[in-house]
Amino acid sequence: MFAVACSDSIRRTRDSAVCTGKLLQNPRIKITDVTVVMSRPPPDPLYILRGSGAAVNTLHFCCGRDGPPFLYSGSGKGAIHVWNLTTRRAEHVLESHAGNSVIWLHTFKDSSSSLISQGRDMRVCVWDLSEDRSTVTDSLLTGSVGFSQCSLLESRPGSALLAHPTEHMEEVSVVDMRSWTPVCTLKPDSKLGMLMCMKMWQADSGPVLCAGYEDGSLVLWDVSHRRPFSCLKAHPEPVMCLDVDVCRQKGISGSSEKTLQSWTFDNQQNLQMHDSVQMTNPGVSQLRIRADGKILATAGWDNNIRVFGLKKLKPLAVLQHHTDMVNSVAFSDHQDPPQRLLAAGSKDQRISVWSIYSKS
Prior knowledge:
- The protein has helices spanning 8-20, 22-25, and strands at residues 47-49, 56-62, 70-75, 79-84, 89-95, 102-108, 111-119, 123-128, 135-141, 151-156, 159-165, 172-176, 181-186, 195-203, 206-213, 217-222, 227-233, 239-245, 250-255, 259-265, 271-278, 284-289, 295-300, 304-309, 314-320, 326-331, 341-346, 351-355.
- By secondary structure, the protein is mainly beta.
- The longest helix is centred in the N-terminal third of the chain and has 13 residues, at 8-20.
- The model is unreliable at 1-38 (pLDDT under 50).
């Protein structure tokens, strides 16, 4: 894991000793007595993927199945690149969504050859990528011109629910992915503004969806009964992104401000504020919690990727490479933990790929 910068308290002790002359006055005090914990410098990217031809808006890994590991990227000009991480080259380029931005990509757990994409052309598309095909087999017109990404829930094999934004900016629609059958529509009673982001998961009581809104509120929705469990005012600015660690019943959200906010929910799905951390610069485009629940990564408006410990939001590293806003971050799902990667996509048209496990 990334080491943290040298201790502030140790630094203050050392500096104070130097300033007061104690190191010279007292022969028993030596510089070596003041232990300075040196950090490892932030790593360089393992490699860079170039050739997207436009801003990289979204990323999705597919590494846990037979065959080579893949990274899917969606661009601001409607191109979907399928990157083979073994050769580090784009194996396919899918021209999609009538040249409009691709803002979300996902694959089904039971079929790596099926890809789902969401574009600013108000459509969600299902792709068949088996046997070198690149065909749209189905699509859904959402009517949404907003920026909220969809969320997919696969509670059991052969069953998938898709939550997507609609033409009504504050509304979420949930459909059965296999038949496009409407399940429910979720709309707040109060005026919370535009839907900004969301995440759906399976709880013991049924599907639960957490949505972030323009006024800075989070709402935890009971999908089965079409009603809110609880609401929390988490930010003074719009909630730009969120992610949830379901096992630890903890979530993280970011906004256009400097604060990264964590919150918890109990078995009755009641939201409560938890920790927060102040970042150097404002603006988080996206954040992701790693599958093991130990760390999270943020995509910054200041061109940087930041890594935090999830438990206490302890800053661990600032990864610097990009020359423009970072739009997306994603953790890989390699079966072997040391092979797991972090990828970041930027407005500078590059994808940086990083090792996120310390080397022995």
